[in-house]
Write a structure and sequence with these properties.
binds magnesium ion; six-stranded antiparallel β-sheet; about 50% helix; binds adenosine-5'-triphosphate; 3 domains; single chain
Length: about 450
């Protein structure tokens, strides 16, 4: 067996014996593994390490060249950073939040990383090695190839993202008729006001022309005065004076509404799933979502807003809007013949902000409450619901490290409560798993 270890520690024989054992264990392990001593020198570099990374043990043993297997230029690897006594905050900062404690051994840390030169993904796990007295004598690092899992995950994530998009487009599709109606209404009166204004302007020009004629022909000031009165009555200039500002104001209001709806729709339909985290006002999000859903809601429910004082939140605003939209539309769908009521409450409790959407609709049985967050669970006819709304909402709230809960009573109504933290870790993971995206 080739000697793949160089014992750089003390000459203590029991220690040497232990080290020898370690050499054998490490070397026969099919998982790429390396060991460093406290001086950051490589003491073990097993055969799997040589095979996978193509760097022979003879090149690195006894040196501080461990980086050669992974990087183009010198930089510390996880084992080096741990040897230097990095604490949790430093590790999180160094790996931009991507590092986590090993699920099995809490004092070991693990990170996933992509190595372009090999076109492979590895999860690397490192832990400190200690002597019997607990003093650090080195660090061990193992690298497990997770490329296959990553590829499958990427494919799945892509498929899921397509699904998210499809769901979003479907909900916009469902709302499109309503939105068209919302826009049509103000456009209708702006159009008729403009017709009236056109007639008024023609009248004004006529008045001007007649005034000019009079001034040219009049013999006395009294004549002018009488003629002016005549024109004023003929053309009903008093009414015109009153009506013009009203018509203009209505036009401004109408175009303002259309502009707002179009803006909300644009915000809402943002299709990039890689939206940036930003500080946003949840009330603004709720209001623009209400605006989008107005047509779906206004014939069936009254909406009561009981907004409290809440700070701006770090979030993915268009995704939260999607959650709100689904909860509002679900609430409207839960109404029977009678006009219903939706109450939206918000508030802050410590370092969390909460949003409650309550309806007095049909309610959800205890049995169904267990299933409503499952993908594709729906009680609605084909075309009205795909059953993805709540499952997606759950995923979005989880991604925000928040919570979504339901309380409901059949025949009385339902409350969905969301709570969200007011702060988020500095860096977010770049990829998201299927579990994160959906509630599965
Ligand atoms: N407020 C509510 N009142 C009564 N039942 C509800 C309420 N919200 C959700 N549900 C029930 O939960 C089911 C799942 O809701 P979810 O939003 O996930 O899907 P969906 O509304 O059926 O379809 P989609 O949202 O994909 O269009 C609904 O079909 C309905 O039975
Ligand atoms: Mg729904």
């Amino acid at each position: 067996m080739p000697n793949l270890s160089v014992d750089l520690l003390s000459g203590d024989t029991t220690q040497q014996h232990g080290w020898q054992m370690l050499t054998q264990i490490v070397d026969s392990d099919p998982v790429p593994t390396l060991v460093l001593n406290v001086r950051h020198e490589v003491t073990h570099w097993n055969r799997a390490m040589e095979r996978v990374f193509g760097v022979p043990a003879s090149e690195v043993l006894g040196t501080r060249g461990q980086w050669r297997a992974f990087y183009e230029s010198e930089r510390p690897i996880l084992a080096d950073i741990m040897l230097d006594g990095a604490d949790e905050a430093m590790l999180l900062q160094w790996y931009q939040g991507r590092i986590k404690r090993s699920d099995l051994i809490p004092d070991a840390w693990e990170v996933e990383g992509y190595f372009p030169q090999l076109d492979k993904w590895f999860v690397f796990t490192a832990n400190l090695l200690r002597d019997v007295h607990g003093a650090v004598i080195g660090a061990i690092e193992t690298l497990v190839d997770i490329t296959e899992r990553k590829r499958v995950q990427e494919q799945l994530t892509e498929a899921q993202q397509q699904l998210v998009l499809a769901e979003k487009l479907a909900s916009i599709g469902q709302l499109a008729a309503g939105v068209a109606h919302e826009i049509n209404n103000p456009i209708g009166y702006v159009h008729s006001n403009l017709n009236a204004l056109g007639r008024y302007i023609a009248d004004l020009f006529e008045a001007l022309e007649r005034y000019e004629g009079m001034v040219r022909q009049a013999e006395s000031l009294a004549d002018v005065h009488t003629a002016l009165e005549g024109v004023r009555k003929d053309l009903d200039l008093d009414f015109l004076k009153e009506d013009v500002p009203t018509l203009v104001r209505e036009c401004q209001e109408g175009t303002g509404r259309v502009k707002k709806i179009v803006q909300d729709l644009k915000d809402f339909s943002r299709v990039d799933t890689h939206e940036e985290w930003q500080m946003a006002d949840l009330h603004q999000g709720l209001d623009s979502t209400l605006n989008i859903a107005a047509n779906e809601l206004k014939y069936q429910v009254d909406v009561v807003k009981e907004y409290g004082e809440i700070p701006l939140l770090p979030c993915l605003p268009s995704q939260l809007n999607q959650v709100f939209l689904n909860l509002l539309v679900n609430a409207a769908h839960a109404m029977g013949e009678q006009r219903g009521r939706i109450t939206i409450r918000t508030g802050r409790k410590g370092d969390r902000v909460w949003v409650e959407i309550e309806d007095n609709g049909c309610g959800i049985s205890r049995e169904q409450q267990q299933k409503i967050f499952d993908p594709f669970f729906t009680t609605k006819p084909v075309g009205k619901g795909t059953g993805l709304g709540l499952s997606l909402s759950y995923g979005i709230i989880q991604k925000h490290r928040g919570q979504i809960l339901v309380t409901s009573e059949v025949g009385r109504g339902t409350i969905f409560s969301i709570s969200l933290p007011t702060t988020q870790p500095i860096a977010r993971p770049q990829t998201e798993s299927v579990e994160e995206l959906f509630h599965v």
